Amino acid sequence: MPVVESRCVVPVDVNTAFAVSQTTGEIRKRWDPFIREQHFEGGATRPAKGVYTHTVQRFGFRMQSEYVSYNPPRNVGMKMTKGSWFFEKLAGGWRFSPVEGQAGMTLAVWRYNFTCKPRWLAPLAERIGVVVLGRDIERRIKGFARGCEDPVVLAAVEDRRL
Predict the structure, then answer these.
(1) Is residue 105 part of a domain?
(2) CA–CA separation, 74 vs 17, rounded Å?
(3) If you average pLDDT over every residue of the chain, what do you get?
(4) What is the CATH number of the domain that holds 147?
(5) Cβ atoms within 10 A of the Cβ of 54, count?
(6) Separation of alpha carbons 154 and 103, rounded Å
(7) What is the pLDDT of residues 100-156, one digit of tens each?
(8) Gyration radius (Cα) of the chain, Å
(9) Does residue 44 form part of some domain?
(10) How many domains does the chain have?
(11) What percent of the chain has pLDDT over 90?
């Protein structure tokens, strides 16, 4: 199963980094270049284990995913439950940990794994997928890093904590 991973260090504490990663709506779009649209399904209004989301990717690909873990402020995991014709499976996990010896700094590690279909095309599709998804995840984590320095995003996160 192919795996892609991106990491970065952001100048905020773990709680803030996790909160930024879970923003929604227009605030999420300020930093996340992957998402054109995203909303919770089934009447949910906030993330939690077992909650489903509907996401439209920037090129129009649609996917339903489920939170399979939600452990603020350390990690969150999701898996695709419905999606594009070329992913048989897609799952990802985001982890946040303090940077040792650097107060107020957080290491964010985002890891995704996937398999492609149809099976006969998977060997080639998965090699291409590592490159394409790898670039997308790198672009996304860089956007997250910018969001962790964006005063509008940080103010929205702070407002939600009150």
Answers:
(1) yes
(2) 9
(3) 94
(4) 3.30.530.20
(5) 14
(6) 18
(7) 999 999 999 999 999 999 999 999 999 999 999 999 999 999 999 999 999 999 999
(8) 16
(9) no
(10) 1
(11) 90
Name the nearest CA neighbour of 67 among 82, 85, 80: 80
In a domain, 26, yes or no: yes
Burial 148-158 (b: 16+ CB within 10 A, else e): bebeebbebbe
Tokens of 158: 């702070």
CB 142 within 8 A of CB 32: no
Token digits for 61?
Answer: 């690909």
Domain that holds residue 22: 3-33+70-161
The sign of the dihedral angle between the CA atoms of 43, 47, 52, 55 is positive
- Helices 14-21 and 122-147: crossing angle, nearest 10°? 120
Residue 20 belongs to a domain: yes
